[in-house]
Structures are given as structure tokens and as C-alpha cells.
Amino acid sequence: MELVYHIGAHATDHGRLASCLQKNRDLVAAQGIAIPRPELYQTDLRNAVAIAFREDPPPPSRDHLIETLLDGQTADRIVMSNTRFISIPARIFEDGVLYPVLERRLMALDRLFPDDELEFHFAICNPATFIPEILGMLDEATHARILKQLDPFSIKWSNMLSRMQQTLPHAHITVWCNEDTPLLWSQIIREMCGVDPTTRIAGGFDLLGELMTAEGVQRFQAYIKSHPPQTEVQKRRVIAAFLDKFAKEDVLEEELDVPGWTEDTVTALTDAYEEDVYTIERMHSVNFIAP
């Protein structure tokens, strides 16, 4: 069985990916791909991982978990999305480490499905925006404690991915930049489902409706209908052009209010992030999706 898990990062797609996957349940079922209802893995699987995490008492059997996830469907690939799988927001930067319980969570999942093929999908994000987003989710006391512990320049996604590779060297890892998600949305869904690049995806343009004005969406849809892109690259160029002209300014503007940060801090973090992305693009056995 192929088990595919979208595990983050927090504050990236805000649940949109899980919602889009559900729209495609029936479309991919005939190809042996199951997309379980979120409650099936956000409760039963989460509890099983918690038990395997502690190793006592014994976790539910692998076959029981698979049966629960399939919910009567026949499939050889199960696709899930749960950004809280590797951490709750309050623990993302605990002790100054990015996702400190990551390894134990991955090992717990591997313990539950020792003979199955594990695949993880993950959107990375500029720490200059990621850190403020996460801090904004926390209560005042936790916010203050994290700020004392955290060196923002220590946030390297490449280090996190290396930890994943070291923990589960046999697992498949797919990564993309959250900043590029509007251009990659359909491909992200296809790669998670493991379908052909030409497979039609329901909700492939849903994200644009939140980023562009109503006029922009209307014009985009009319253009796509009259000038169907022949390749993914052509489609991305069209999306980029319409976003450039019709993007909602209030959606693209982000609050970066972190005590002690200046414009120079944000610039330096962004530069460091771009170098980190460059490193990730060249990491062995990491499937990096680029525009």
C-alpha cells in the first residue's frame, strides 16, 4: 500500500489542499486511489500514532488501520492531509528547533505501517512570513517564550528535510515553495494522487478565486476557455500574468510585526530562505516542484 501524507507546513494552504482533495475523491477512485474523509485519519490514525509514539500499549494492527482508512473502498494508494500531524502550533519552535518531535512522529507512522510505502508532501515557506504567522496562533505567554528561544536565522527547511531523510531513508519526499502554490496547485494535487499529468483536477483553479479580484477570475476563466494552455508551463505563465494584474492587494500584503525585527531582518531572512531553497533543489531523493 502507498500511504501519502501532506503534513504541512502550518500556515501555508490553510486547509485548502485537504478540501480540494475531497473534491477529487470520486474522480480518482476508479484508479485505485482512496482519499479518506479527514475524520478517519484525524482521529483514529492520530490516536494510533500517539500510541505508537509512546510504544505502550500496543497500537492497533496495520490491517485494522488500513480497513478504517479505506472505509469499504478498494485501493492501493491512500492520500491524506493533516498539518497537525507533526506538531501543534505551540510546539513548532520548541527549544528553538523547527518541528522538534518530527522524527518521533515519523518513526511512529513507520512502526504502524512497516511494510508499506510512505510518501510525504510538504510546502516550505519564507521564515520572514512563516514565523509571524505561527506566533500569531499562540497565546501571549507562549508567544513570549518562543521569541526568547528562537533564532529566526536557524530556521532551515533543508535541515528539517535532512532529518526526515535520516529518520526514514526509504520514504519519498515531495516539496514546493508555498509562495509558488498558486502556480502549482493542479500539479500538487496530481502528484499527491499519483495520477497522469494530463488528468483533469476538480478545483484546480480554486485558489485563484481567493487571490484575484472577481473581474480577474472572470477574465482568466474566459481566457483559459478560449485559449486552452497546451502545457503546464503555458498554464503557469497565464496564471502568473493574471495574478500580476488582478491580485487582491490586501491578500498579498502580510503583517510582519515581530518585536525587534526591522526591514533589514526581513530582507536578510528572505535572502537566507532563497539560499535554502537553492540547497533543497539539489538535495538527493527530494522531489522539488518548481514553477
Give the rounded overall mean pLDDT. Answer: 90
What is the CATH fold-level name?
Rossmann fold
CATH class: Alpha Beta
**In total, how many domains does the architecture comprise?**
1
How many beta strands in the DSSP annotation?
6
Biggest sheet, strands in spatial order? 2-3-1-4-5-6
- Span between termini: 30 Å
Tell me what you see in this structure.
The chain has 291 residues and is an alpha/beta fold. It is built from 14 helices and 6 strands. A 6-stranded parallel β-sheet has the order 2-3-1-4-5-6, sandwiched between helices. It is globular, with a radius of gyration of 20 Å. The two termini are 30 Å apart.
Defining traits:
Rossmann fold, 6 strands, alpha/beta
